[in-house]
Amino acid sequence: MPEPSVRPEDREAGHEAAAGSSLAPGPLLVAVQGRAAAALAAAPPLAEGLRSRFAPREIEVFIADVGPEGVAIVPWEDAGPGPEGRSPPLTPPPASQGAVAGSASPLGPLLRLGAARGAAGMAIVAAEAHDPSIDWLDLLLSPVVEGGYDLVCPAYRRNRTAGAINSGIVAPLVRTLWGLALRQPLGTEMAISGSLALRLLEDDDWRRRPAEAGSDAWLLAKALGGEARVAQAWLGAWPRPAGEPEELSQTLARALGLVFTEMERSADRWQRMGGGLRPLASFGSGGFEPGGEELDPGRLHAAFSLGLRELEPIWSLVLPPATLLALQRAERGAARGFDPGLWARIVYDFAVAHMARTVERRQLLRSLTPLYLGWLAGLARSAATLDDPGFEAQLEAVAAAFERERRYLIGRWRWPDDFNP
Amino acid sequence: MWEQTKSTFLAAVASIVQTFARLLPGILAMLLLVLVSVLVALVARGLLRRVCARLDVDRRLREWGMAAPAVAGRAGPSQLIARLGAWTVVATGFLVGLSVLESTAASSLALRLLDYVPHAVVGLVIVVAGLAGSRAVERSVLIGAVNMGLHSARLLGLGARWLVQVLAGAMALEQLGIGGTILTAAFAVLFGGIVLSLSLAVGLGSRDIVARSLEKRLEQGDKADTPAGGQTHHL
User: Fold this and answer.
1) CA-nearest residue of chain B to A249?
2) Per DSSP, what are the bridge partners of residue A232?
3) What's the CA gap between A109 and A340, in Å, rounded?
4) What mean pLDDT do residues A376-399 have?
5) Best B64, B213, B222, B234 residue to mutate vs chain A (most A CBs within 10 Å)
6) Is B18 exposed, middle or buried (0-12, 13-18, 19+ CB in 10 A)?
7) A233 SS3 class
8) In this structure, are residues A190 and A123 in contact, taking their beta carbons and an 8 Å threshold?
9) Å from A300 to nearest chain B CA?
10) What is the mean pLDDT of chain A?
11) What is the pLDDT of residues B36-88, one digit of tens each?
12) Is A143 in the B-facing interface, judged by CB distances under 8 Å?
């Protein structure tokens, strides 16, 4: 039987399990999200693994079916063209992982079903193959089912430059706004307790903002801004989705659109929180995968230079003159890269412009691409020269800069027209 | 002689007075109509301002790049819309006033102009929408081209903007009934010319880049050749 995830070594690392935890009764509901064929292939071994680990608890595995009328969850036994030809093939969901919009997320149906069944916990997992060397199911679900946590977010071992939107924008933002140092806030996978599910279902957003409620950014804002006990589980190597990655500017617009929208909706809460890091329980062991050298800092910097030359009229509506000057200096000193404080202020300025609708939102977020590439050039250079602890320190410096510039964010948020473009 | 001159003069004055007396009710009616139209225009201006404020027109137009950022002391788009609406009402009132005059020439001119007003309004709307839309299209094309790494991004944006503006101009002129078939032919030549110029500019300017890109693609199989790393997942 696999070792439970709330292990002594985690406690020794300063991550205490939630006090007063008890084994919550009720079934365990898991929805598999991904391409139809992969989900259908992943469901049977997943169900078997869950039954062997969490026996005698009742286990139900579903497959998320994204259709024109929204997302439905179907018991895996009833889904797909089985031997008796039960149902038609499922509609394929979006190819990319993470930053799933509310309208494309199985969270809502899963929470409703979980509440109806009195579930102890629910989880959404990716259909792609997981790291076989890690008992990732246990790491993801045990903190909720046995540890008394409300939400478990995933973290993965990836190469240094992969997932830089998460590590360079979303994670520092979440840390600054909500005080939790999650490594990969917009991962597809998650585990939720039955009690958090009930609280989330009471939220008025399901009625007022049905397209946004249920996205992973929405879940984070609700859970981190409330009283939920949140943990992070290192699930091993990232389950890489099949096929070509999505085009970068589309990924940026989609992910940051969700994050900035939730930032706007919860502005009164995060401005009251006052900053500072809260302790975060973390299960499993992290680190980096080898690789990540395919990014060419020179080409990334050239893309940034092109953006600076061509998009300056749009950026000047969003960024203060001092930031534009700093960007011109960064463009000339290619080897130094972006100062972390400059990068933090740029992200904050774009968040404020998104809130104030200074520029049409999709155009605004797509115009961030060359800036992101300019920042990524510096990160790629660091990845090539630093060892793992050094690179970790580099990411920490970015997150610390976001925290330092929190006052700048609040000032600009309250008076978005304070600089005259 | 003097008597004859005097009688002719008096007859002329009497005729002018009679004509004026005959026209006076019409002129008074016209002035009254103009006055009413001014009042209606003031009400319309207020209403338009309120509607624009409620719809947040200024912010939306700025968001789409269709209007310049707000500058203190300069009229915003909603003020311009309100003024335009008010002057349209005044002009229409004036034309209606002219039509009640007992002057055949003035009435027929006014009636013809009144018939023309809907076409003029539609033409104006097309021009304004075209100008505004062209800015949004230019910005979108510019951002897309920069993200694709194209060095002629501004040229492409400008070309897209001019295409939309020329199209809107041609539609507006057709609506106004100006030009007829000559306009259609001229538009086809101009539109085709712009597209050809752009194709040549981009094609000749980036011939080497396209060739290198294709070579690389053939060498690397399906691996995309983008600055951001074709196989890198950024999320």
Assistant:
1) B147
2) A153, A282
3) 40
4) 92
5) B234
6) exposed
7) strand
8) yes
9) 5
10) 86
11) 999 999 999 999 999 999 988 888 888 777 777 766 667 788 888 899 889 98
12) no
Task: Please check whether residue A76 is in contact with residue A50, taking contact to mean a CB–CB distance below 8 angstroms.
Answer: no
Best mutation target among B62, B135, B147 (most A Cβ atoms within 10 Å) is B147
Runs of H (alpha helix) within chain B = 2-55, 57-63, 77-100, 104-147, 153-176, 181-205, 207-220
Q: What is the pLDDT of residues A184-228, one digit of tens each?
A: 998 889 999 999 999 999 999 999 988 889 898 999 999 988 889
DSSP 8-state code for residue A103? G
Question: In CATH, what number does A8-289 get?
Answer: 3.90.550
> So what's the ipTM on this one?
0.84
Q: Which residues pair with A159 in a beta bridge?
A: A289
Chain B interface includes A312 (CB < 8 A): no
Question: Tell me, what's the pLDDT at A398?
Answer: 95
| Structural domain boundaries in chain A | 8-289, 297-414
Comparing CB atoms, the residue among A97, A245, A255 nearest residue B232 is: A245
Residues A96, B235: C-beta atoms closer than 8 Å: yes
Can you read off the two tokens belonging to residue B34? 């103009």
Inter-chain touch B230–A245, beta carbons under 8 Å:
yes
Helix, strand, or coil (residue A134): coil
pLDDT at residue number A302: 93
CA angle, corner A319, sides to A302 and A218, nearest 5?
95
Nearest chain A CA: its distance from B125 CA (Å) = 22
Residue of A nearest to B154 (CA): A310
Secondary structure of A295-340 as H, E, C letters: CCHHHHHHHHHHHHHHCHHHHHHHCCHHHHHHHHHHHHCCCCCCCH
Distance CA A312, CA B139 (A): 12
pLDDT band at B229 (very low <50, low <70, confident <90, very high): low
Contact A314 B143 (CB under 8 A): yes
Helix axes A321-332, A340-356, angle to 10 degrees: 140
Q: CB pairs below 8 Å between A and B: how many?
A: 107
Distance from CA of B170 to the nearest CA of A (A): 28
Residue with tokens 């797509």: A366
Give the pLDDT band (50/70/90) at residue A92.
very low
> Which residues from B are below 8 Å from A215, CB to CB?
none
